[in-house]
Design a protein that fits this description.
The protein is α+β, with helices and mostly antiparallel strands. The protein has a single domain, classed as Endonuclease/exonuclease/phosphatase (Deoxyribonuclease I, Chain A). Helix content is 27%, strand content 26%.
């Protein structure tokens, strides 16, 4: 019997290591989930009328599209999206439908919490919008100490495969100033989530919450007694020791713990992958926030 040489053993070990790495890579994990996995992205793209100099929308809009295409989401929620940004993304992200209205009038005026979804993957069954105020059904309404109208947009999507599985997707943006407005917005959001989930449909929510992990708005959402919700990032990164900064101010690397962009889901959803995307070109990122991504599926 021929004894393998040391070189043969090293080559074999390398092959095994490479095979194992591929099998456990995020892409392979997603492939193993088949059509049941849903790739979800949340991205504050920074409103296009801001006077951002070298980081102005016209100078980075192609980079934004490239970053989205790199992850290739099935569902994308964008924040700070004004009408011409919505249209640019629609024109350059082929195969998606978009749902969203301006926060100022419920039509075209102001930032949108736009939701893009793949036409070949989903059919929209329902959709709606609510404002964070004492009169949530009134477009453009403001409440408490909020600085601007703030809102949530949502859709109910039905998969064209995976036995017609249905999902709710919520996309939102909390106020950046008013502490009371943030607390009240979290109370309303968890209430609306619980109401939608009452029919048993799995639900995913995402957005820019302008609040730190551990803040009162965070606790209201993820420590609610009315409905159990998962922080997708925390599920895959439970130690909290990794850099979690999601606001980067257009800088390529911010390594603090300021995670103010969150993606959550109901307990019937399994989290296969959750990441903060720090794609950059040299010193610059595509927006002043880093997008957050997750691959999710139904618990079997």
């Amino acid at each position: 019997m021929k004894v393998p040489s040391e070189m043969h053993i090293q080559i074999f070990s390398l092959i095994v290591a490479v095979s194992f790495a591929f099998a456990t890579s995020p892409e392979a994990v997603f492939a193993q989930q088949g059509e049941g996995g849903v790739k979800v992205m949340s991205f504050n793209i920074r409103y296009g009328t801001a006077k951002d100099g070298v980081n102005h929308w016209e100078k980075r809009k192609e980079f934004v599209v490239e970053t989205i295409k790199k992850f290739d989401p099935d569902v994308l929620g964008t924040q700070e999206t004004v009408d011409f940004q919505r249209d640019y993304l629609s024109e350059n992200l082929k195969g998606y439908s978009v749902f969203g209205v301006g926060r100022n009038d419920g039509k075209e005026d102001g930032e949108m919490m736009a939701i893009y979804y793949r036409d070949d993957r989903f059919t929209k069954l329902e959709g709606g919008h609510s404002w964070y105020s004492e009169t949530p059904e009134v477009a453009g309404s403001k409440g408490w100490d909020t600085s601007l109208p703030r809102m949530v947009s949502w859709v109910k999507l039905k998969s064209k495969s995976d036995a017609g599985q249905e999902y709710y997707f919520f996309n939102t943006h909390f106020d950046h100033i008013g502490p009371q407005a943030k607390k009240e917005a979290a109370k309303l959001l968890v209430k609306w989530i619980a109401e939608k989930h009452a029919d048993g449909t799995p639900l995913i929510f995402m957005g820019d919450f302008n609040s730190m992990v551990g803040s009162q708005p965070y606790k209201t959402l993820f420590e609610s007694e009315s409905i159990k919700l998962q922080d997708t990032y925390l599920v895959k990164h439970p130690s909290g020791s990794e850099p979690e900064q999601t606001y980067g101010g257009f800088e390529a690397v911010k390594t603090g713990q300021g995670r103010i962009d969150w993606m959550g889901c109901t307990e019937d959803i399994e989290v296969f992958r959750a990441e903060i995307d720090r794609t950059a070109r040299g010193e610059f990122s595509p927006s002043d926030h880093y997008p957050i991504n997750a691959v999710l599926g139904i618990k079997r």
